Amino acid sequence: MKHKKLLSCIIAGILFTSIVGTLAHFAYQWSNENPLVGLFTPVSESTWEHMKLLFFPMLLFGALACRRLREECPCLAYAYPLGILAGTFAIPVLFYTYSGILGKAYTPIDILIFYISVILAFVIVYRITIRCQEMNPNFKKSPFMPWLLVGTLAACFMAFTAFTPALGIFQVGP
C-alpha cells in the first residue's frame, strides 16, 4: 500500500511540476516583469533562469508531499531534495552536452530536456525512497543536509536573478 501511495504521489508530482513549470516560463512576462515573480520564474532565456522551471514547482510540491506522506514514507524527506537537485542540475548538463555536440541549441530539444529532467528527478525520489525503506524500515537519518543544499540553491536563484554574474550559464544562448 505504501508503494502505491508513493507512486501516485510521484505521478502527481511529475504532472504538477511539468504543468506549473511550463506556465512559469511565461509568468514573469505575464506579470509585467514583476521583480517578485522574477525571483521564482525565468527573467531571461539563460540556462540558469530555466533551471527555476523545475526547481520551484518541485520544491512546492515536495513540501506538501513530504508533509502528507511523512508517516508512510519517512525516507521521502531525505530523497526529495536529492531529486530536486538532480533534476535541476540535469537541465544544464543535458543542454550544454547536446548544444556542444550539435553546435547550437534547438527549442524543441530544450523543451524536451525540461520534461526529461522532471521525470528523472521524480524517478530518483521514488527509487531512493523505496530502496531506503526496504533496507531500513525504521529510517531516522536527518534530511537536514540535502534540504540545506536546496535552500542554498534557492537563495542563489534569487541572488543571481537580482545580481547576475558575467558567466556563460547566466547568459542567453549556448
How would you describe this structure to a colleague?
This protein has 174 residues and is an all-alpha fold. It has one domain. Helices cover 75% and strands 0% of the residues. The protein contains 6 helices and no strands. It has helices at 2-30, 35-38, 47-68, 76-102, 107-135, 144-162. Helix 1 (2-30) runs antiparallel to helix 5 and helix 4 (76-102) runs antiparallel to helix 5. The longest helix is centred in the first third of the chain and has 29 residues, at 2-30. The protein is globular. The model has no long low-confidence stretch (mean pLDDT 93).
Descriptive tags:
75% helix; 6 helices; 174 residues; mainly alpha
Helix content: over 70%
Strand/helix succession: HHHHHH
- Estimated radius of gyration: 17 Å
Q: Number of domains in the coordinates?
A: 1
Strand content: under 5%
Can you tell me the residue ranges where pLDDT is under 50 for at least 5 consecutive residues?
none
Q: What's the shape?
A: globular
Structural class: mainly alpha
The major beta sheet can be summarized as: none
Overall pLDDT level: 93
Q: Could you give the count of β-strands?
A: 0
Distance between the termini: 45 Å
The number of helices is 6
Give the secondary structure arrangement, pairings included.
Layout: H1 2-30, H2 35-38, H3 47-68, H4 76-102, H5 107-135, H6 144-162
Helix pairs in contact: 1-3, 1-5, 3-4, 4-5, 4-6
